[in-house]
Amino acid sequence: MTALTQLYPQHQADISLQGLYLSHNIRALGNEAPFVYSNYVTSLDGRIAVPHPTKPGLVVPKNVANARDWRLFQELAVQADVLISSGRYLRDYADGRAQEILQVYDDPRFADLQTWRSAQGLSPQPDIAVVSASLNFPVPAQLLSGERQVVVITTASSPVQKRKDLAQQGVNVIVVGDVVTGKTLVTAFQESGYQYIYNATGPKVLHLLLADNALDRLYLTQVNRLLGGAPYAGIVDGPLFEHPIDMALNSIYLDAHDVGQLFISYNKR
Ligand SMILES: NC(=O)c1ccc[n+]([C@@H]2O[C@H](COP(=O)([O-])OP(=O)(O)OC[C@H]3O[C@@H](n4cnc5c(N)ncnc54)[C@H](OP(=O)(O)O)[C@@H]3O)[C@@H](O)[C@H]2O)c1
């Protein structure tokens, strides 16, 4: 397997892809407060999602998604107490057109991560939180039958009957107020006892988190490929931030495999 080269903070050759983000040791970061981290694979022209080839809506571009980035996604997911997803994701999932994020490291290729998680004394899989105002999604059966808690975080104006239906299925429905914000989201997680929170949603939820200074670390995989395409999603979508959000560069690794990509991470300043 092609080795990586670390470019920052210092130059170092021959770094193994396997174990790279486990070595970031997320669970040693932060203090008592929730530690929120997010991860995107993006094209050089900033696209994390492009129009689905045959259906309405956007999808992660097939020609930037890749197995090496996917391995790192799993290494980040396995370190979490809870993984954040969205109503949109579960609708697409039910329609069979979402990239799989719920099974995390179930794949036999990631058996080592299962072993890692169990050695930490953690539950077999992180719980799943779904951010949604509409509550218009089915909860996949495999999530309801397993050991993972499903948490839905929603607004006071969401449909009451749908909330009741979800609760009847064993879902923990949390109404955070009139709107979901980064702050209310993180408070809901803290009150539910979650400390390490992996955000796997797209640009709207990331905007909420950033606007409230609630994102502790951002991971980006930047593939050396330009896509074009419209409409598209970038990593953040929402109003101009009141103050620009500056991040501190944490690490950069060069992956020379195939077309090439950079694995980059930033910390909150
Ligand atoms: N390349 C990558 O690494 C990457 C990573 C993540 C996502 N993506 C792509 O980005 C696109 C968008 O992803 P996404 O839809 O998961 O992310 P999103 O744009 O952050 O979230 C949208 C969904 O979250 C809920 N939501 C957002 N803000 C809310 C608020 N303030 N209150 C209540 N609910 C709120 C809504 O659910 P309801 O509609 O149910 O109310 C909405 O449909 C997708 O095409 C996805 O594939 C790419």
Largest sheet: 11 strands, mixed
What is the 3D shape?
globular
Total beta strands? 13
How much helix is in the residues? Answer: 10-25%
* CATH homologous superfamily assignment: Dihydrofolate Reductase, subunit A
Strand order of the largest sheet: 2-1-12-13-11-3-10-6-7-8-9
- Look up the CATH topology: Dihydrofolate Reductase, subunit A
Under the CATH scheme, the architecture is: 3-Layer(aba) Sandwich
**Could you tell me how far the N terminus lies from the C terminus, measured between alpha carbons in angstroms?**
35 Å
Order of helices and strands: EEEEEHEHHEHEHEHEHEEE
Mean pLDDT: 95
Number of domains: 1
The low-confidence parts are none
Structural features, described:
- With 269 residues, the protein is an alpha/beta fold.
- The chain has one domain: Dihydrofolate Reductase, subunit A, CATH 3.40.430.
- Helix content is 23%, strand content 25%.
- It has seven helices and 13 strands.
- It has helices at residues 67-77, 87-94, 111-119, 141-145, 160-168, 182-191, 203-211; strands at 4-8, 12-15, 35-42, 50-51, 58-59, 82-86, 127-131, 150-154, 172-175, 196-199, 217-223, 247-255, 261-268.
- The strands form two sheets. An eleven-stranded mixed beta sheet has the order 2-1-12-13-11-3-10-6-7-8-9, with helices on both faces. A two-stranded antiparallel ribbon has the order 4-5.
- Helix 6 crosses helix 7 (203-211).
- NADP nicotinamide-adenine-dinucleotide phosphate (NAP) is lined by residues 40-41, 48-49, 58-60, 86-89, 131-134, 136, 155, 179-180, 200-205, 208, 233.
